[in-house]
Each structure stands twice: as structure tokens, then as C-alpha cells.
Design goal:
Helix content is 30%, strand content 19%. The chain is α+β, with helices and mostly antiparallel strands. A five-stranded antiparallel beta sheet has the order 1-2-3-5-4, covered by helices on one side.
Length: 135
């Protein structure tokens, strides 16, 4: 059982900012900036790829509303929405969750993005991904 499940079950308190039948959002206890919020589905799945369409739709509906609310409440105009899948991708709690992290001066998420280039097989890779979405 994850810490998020314990929060959902009421075993651990949180500062709720939004809740409906499928989604819970609350302040992160270790925020990168003021207003850092975690958004979780009530469906317990480790990664986004395991999440049902119903839960994914619910989160997709709520994320923009929460981003607007966080910016209004904090005065932030810039923010990151971060979602990690698997421990190698820096996921610490194995329950799907999105971070909404306001950028407040130097506070917020710092990202080093060592961009590469497309490989020679990009067309084949795109076709394989497209085929996998329908299969």
C-alpha cells in the first residue's frame, strides 16, 4: 500500500485542494515552490500506461482547472506539470500522480534537458508506435 492510498483511505491527513469521485489533489508535503500540488487518481495504478481511460479522462479534465487555480492563488504565471513512470524515471511513489509546480523566481522545477536528434529509423519508429496504439 502506498502513502497515496493511505491518504485516500483517510489514514494520513493532507491539505486537500480538490476532490471528486475519481481524483484527489492536495499540497505536496515537500514542495519545490509555494502551491506545489499533487494530483492523483483514486484508481490505484503504478504508471500512467496502466491507468483506465475513465481515470485518465478525469485527470485530464481536472489538470487545467487546477493549473488556473494554483496560478491565481499564488500569483505564478509559469508552472511545470510533471508525471514520472517507474523508478528509473524518478517515480518515488508507485501510484500515478501529477505534480503541478509553480515557478516562482528561482523556486520550482529546474530541468537539464540534453536534447538529441531524431535517428535514421524515425519513420519506422513512428509507424510502430502508431500501430501499437490501435492494437
Amino acid at each position: 500500500m502506498t502513502i497515496f492510498q493511505k491518504i485516500l483511505d483517510g489514514e494520513i491527513p493532507c491539505h486537500r485542494v480538490y476532490e471528486d469521485t475519481q481524483v484527489l489533489a492536495f499540497l505536496d508535503v515537500s514542495p519545490l515552490s509555494r502551491g506545489h500540488v499533487l494530483v492523483i487518481p483514486k484508481e490505484a495504478r503504478a504508471t500512467l500506461g496502466e491507468l483506465s481511460d475513465r481515470s485518465a479522462e478525469a485527470i485530464g479534465r481536472v489538470l487545467p482547472r487546477l493549473c488556473r487555480a494554483i496560478c491565481k492563488a499564488t500569483g505564478a504565471t509559469d508552472y511545470n506539470v510533471l508525471q514520472n513512470n517507474g523508478s528509473a524515471a524518478h517515480q518515488a511513489v508507485m501510484h500515478v500522480h501529477f505534480h503541478i509546480i509553480p515557478r516562482m523566481g528561482e523556486q520550482g522545477l529546474g530541468i537539464d534537458w540534453p536534447a538529441g536528434g531524431l535517428e535514421d529509423d524515425a519513420a519506422d519508429l513512428a509507424a510502430s508506435i502508431t500501430a501499437a496504439t490501435t492494437g
